[in-house]
């Protein structure tokens, strides 16, 4: 008797999901024509109405499976187009709605084939001398945060889209806005952790932008770069160690203790965990030993502890 009862429950749940999806489709379909109007104000009002509808759809207890269909079919392609809307306010609302939708969708990974090229197109500069396609600094930060969310939700499913992700990150790491660079560093590290089986094929292309940013005037950016470099090389190509050693050595003389602490921790982490660490012992060991004489007791303690763990 248990099996028929379970089947009835499943059937009832399926009907409820279908009904919720149909209701959401009707609600969205009434609002979507407003996105096509020539009026900037009209598009903005349509987006604001969609924002209200989405916030209702993502309320606690709402069915994410029922949301998936209308989101992927009706909203996602239109919102991606609006990322290049002439009006900054409309672009910002579109990015916010994409964030809401990704968080609520039952299968956020399904959005990656369309989302990643769209984000890359708004962040990556066709030529280094030209400004980013998205002119607003705050909105570029939002787009990199959206990329970070996609990495967190997509995990290993990002692997086929590494080209687009890395292209966007290379631009973010050289962005004029310091907050975009920091978010780009965190996103690069997250991407490395999310795609360990494939990331090594792309990791070296991030080292150049990271090293161009390692001497940034903001110390928090310098710390973010050092920590991201540690993760990018840990999950990427060990060959890049040679490309960063001189930059790391310079940061051991940084005026800010947090920067020197970051170098010490990353170098010690490589000596412990890098796959081909024994090939680099003679190059990494002097950097760790340099921290033994740092003026800050905390850095000396970190270096000593790592040295003991490495067992040299």
Q: How far is the first residue's CA from the last residue's CA?
A: 67 Å
- Beta-strand fraction estimate: under 5%
The residue-averaged pLDDT reads: 92
Report the helical percentage: over 70%
Shape: elongated
The number of helical runs is: 14
* SSE succession: HHHHHHHHHHHHHH
Rg, Å, rounded: 24 Å
Note the main sheet: none
Low-confidence stretches: 7-13
Structural class estimated from helices and strands: mainly alpha
Number of strands: 0
Keywords, separated by commas or semicolons:
single chain; 312 residues; 0% strand; elongated
Can you tell me about this structure?
With 312 residues, this protein is mainly α. Among the domains are: 38 residues, no CATH class; 104 residues; 61 residues, no CATH class. The chain has 14 helices and no strands. The chain starts with a helix and ends with a helix. InterPro entries: ARM-like (IPR011989), ARM-type_fold (IPR016024), DAAF5 (IPR052623), TPR_DAAF5 (IPR057978). This is Dynein assembly factor 5, axonemal isoform 1. One of its GO terms (biological process) is inner dynein arm assembly. One of its GO terms (molecular function) is dynein intermediate chain binding.
Please describe the topology of this protein.
Elements: H1 2-31, H2 40-57, H3 64-82, H4 88-104, H5 112-123, H6 137-154, H7 162-172, H8 178-194, H9 204-213, H10 219-235, H11 241-251, H12 257-273, H13 281-290, H14 297-310
Helix pairs in contact: 1-2, 1-3, 2-4, 3-4, 4-6, 5-6, 5-7, 6-8, 7-8, 7-9, 8-10, 9-10, 10-12, 12-13, 12-14
